């Protein structure tokens, strides 16, 4: 399978915010070195911290994508072509390298930036070692420094981690080579290129510390920082001591915080669980009384236990199993890597082999429960692509996984035994399978068990820091799969049709940062990680939204996904701490006692969208007047202890939130996004009012019919016409050469200009990048759905008539250009060139059971909306209420809270996947609301799709698809409308109720 990078709206929003904050270029011509060909063009306000830009994006939302695309954008718009990416660790460096150089990233960016390539130069620790005894620069450093801006199709990127940048190799100036005709220091040579620096994980580079000083030594014109966390600065002493986040301009120029990421469904939801233990074991706790580099003192029941470096914790309590010793050192660690600090509590029972087995067993149960859902896709469209399910285990010791002399450690043996038992039980269950998908899953399970029992199993893999450089072929195969074969792990079968059974991954903490796989659905921690580690960071490896086997990213509307996070009893407050971290990650200062300026600002911004003609000051005064009239706040701004509104008594704060729910949406993570399964074992359900839904039964019998998209007879002809037009390549931008160039620089001198450099460029002789024609044609056919014969005929004709039969034009750039151009032009043509044809069978959806021909009794609250709000009872509503469930305050909540006239007999929000309208561009869609209006002749069903006023990517496509689908139901009294406001919906309903709109008069 191939991952498909897709443009996501929040990432476009980030790029637009950065573009708005970018200071622009200095075209004044006053700098005599402005046109220095080895350096970037000059940026306005360069070398000024106030011009630098901060982008805050939560883990799992794609910051690497954003800063990679940013480089393309800055190159395209401003000619900037030299960037240095600085990351804190080798593992993050490897993750960045892997993304930028991946085939799927290259193909994606080639669609947006044709004929532009990133030349990634990675500096590693061993690159400066020379075998000849001479001290030479690494080739990739020379490539970066001496590239010139005259190669307009290339972006030069230098990727380096902080320790490498800080090393003597980068700062020394006694090399036996020179760069730029005289520089003998790598740092000074990079500085001469006037680089743009991108900093990943900025909290690891606090200003005033050595690693940030190294960045300053590069003399970057501009610094872009990307991260979920930024460094803090402290000023003052004692009572005047103030700590705040250190942003360049006082605040980030784009802020996608944790609350927004979870509430907007940009990351997976999280379910947290842990195995119980007896009260006696739970009460057996040791507190860290003191800890130094050489000594650990534990305390229990008034007695102290002292351990020096190398002494075993089992000497204090035999339940400290696993030969764990005090390792000490600057990190004050145990031998299993657990960092200690004063007042930390240790529970010996969580260190035992039996307790770790309990976590593994629970993790396997969760894995297979999720895997069956992801494989079957029962609530998705028919024959929906499967989703590979991966699980990640963090363990405390490599020796428990890899034994001596290539043997298996006790943990690996126990894991294999438990896994084999669970596989056998599942196979017994699916042996009686009747559906093709269930039979497939049974084959997958059998292949897994067969591999598990083989000499060289491919079911689970481990990666540890000690594995680097291992000569064991099995170990290297495991490491290769985890680090570099992401697409292989996400697929179900290899190129030979064999099942890919690898889906259980083990690591110490090596994979805690810099590595991610979107299909990690289970993370199990077999030991605590200490109190200093960010909880968001710990769950971060599993937060990304998953992809299906076609490489398509599945948003929460298409397929709700959650991460099962298994921990030990000693971290039973993990969920509470995680929610606290998420809620702290917001710039809204929530105060239950007093209305704060930031709370008021959220309301003002929301109202400004409703009333764009009003000034901010007018809206501000109207809000305060309303709060005062309702008695919610005092003149001082404090909330009243109690207020009565519509006969209901509540606190002033609660009344304020009920009036303006958007405040908590921007500051508090929704309740079901992070769940502690020990406290919330059953997901929130919403009960249907069957009597009201049955009023829609006649309509639903039609909606339940599965639909086939039938293209007009003209579509095939249109496809051929588009293809022929594309192959003509009138603008000469599709068929291109993929070529490297040799750049030769000569230093000269004249009396007027002094030293100067002349540059000549020549192509590498016979060194064009090409690809086999068979592979080229196969990929072109697969990704355009055009007949092989047509494509071959067009290629032969184009090669003969336009390209002089030069095979060098058959390359990946040409391929990407053809695919991108054809698909765009073809999709533009067929958006309305198809119709829906009902099939002879019905399908179940989230709201309807096709076999029983009846509505379900209840649905998960999450399919109705992330947020909840109190509301008065309305007999016409489709569900028991309060509370109401919704995804947006405006217009969804406003539509739900409105009172409707007597002619409306039922109304309500449609659950996600309630109708599942097939999309011509794959997937399904379901609108948001339904209203039944009684009229004298026959009832009318008003179907509403809601969108924000500023339409997002794909909204117009959704409107076209839904409109096309519901047009066929006009005879049944169905009206469809996409609306951006509650008032628009209200006006439409009034016109229908009053007979002002007939079926043929509806305007969309």
How many helices? The count is: 31
How much of the sequence lies in strands comes to: 15-25%
* Rg calculated over all Cα atoms: 31 Å
What is the overall silhouette? globular
Main beta-sheet strand count, sense and barrel state = 7 strands, parallel
Straight-line distance between termini: 39 Å
Helix content: 25-40%
* pLDDT < 50 stretches: 742-757
Structural class: alpha/beta
Q: Mean of residue pLDDT?
A: 88
Number of strands: 40
Kindly report the spatial arrangement of strands forming the biggest sheet.
Answer: 3-4-2-5-6-1-9
Can you describe this structure?
- 33% of the residues lie in helices and 20% in strands.
- The chain is built from 31 helices and 40 strands.
- β36 and β37 form a beta hairpin.
- α13 packs antiparallel against α14, α26 packs parallel to α28 and α29 (889-897) crosses α31 (982-993).
Which features would summarize this protein structure in a list?
seven-stranded parallel β-sheet; 1004 residues; 31 helices
Q: Secondary structure elements and their pairing?
A:
Blueprint: H1 9-21, E1 53-57, H2 63-78, E2 82-87, H3 90-101, H4 103-112, E3 117-122, H5 139-146, E4 154-161, H6 162-166, H7 168-171, H8 186-192, E5 196-200, H9 210-217, E6 222-227, E7 232-235, E8 242-245, E9 254-256, H10 258-263, E10 269-273, H11 279-283, E11 286-291, E12 295-300, E13 303-308, E14 326-328, E15 333-334, E16 345-346, H12 353-376, E17 390-394, H13 410-430, H14 436-452, E18 460-463, H15 473-483, H16 486-490, E19 504-507, E20 520-525, H17 535-539, E21 562-566, H18 574-584, H19 597-610, H20 616-629, E22 643-645, E23 648-650, H21 652-659, H22 662-665, E24 674-676, E25 685-687, H23 690-693, H24 697-703, E26 705-711, H25 714-728, E27 739-750, E28 754-768, H26 773-784, H27 788-801, H28 812-830, E29 834-842, E30 848-849, E31 854-855, E32 858-860, E33 867-869, E34 884-886, H29 889-897, E35 904-909, E36 917-918, E37 924-925, E38 929-933, E39 940-946, H30 955-967, E40 974-979, H31 982-993
Parallel strand pairs: 1-6, 1-9, 2-4, 2-5, 3-4, 5-6, 10-21, 10-24, 17-19, 17-20, 18-19, 20-21, 39-40
Antiparallel strand pairs: 7-8, 11-12, 11-16, 12-13, 14-15, 22-23, 25-32, 26-29, 27-28, 30-31, 33-34, 35-38, 36-37, 38-39
Helix pairs in contact: 1-2, 12-13, 13-14, 19-20, 25-27, 25-28, 26-28, 29-31
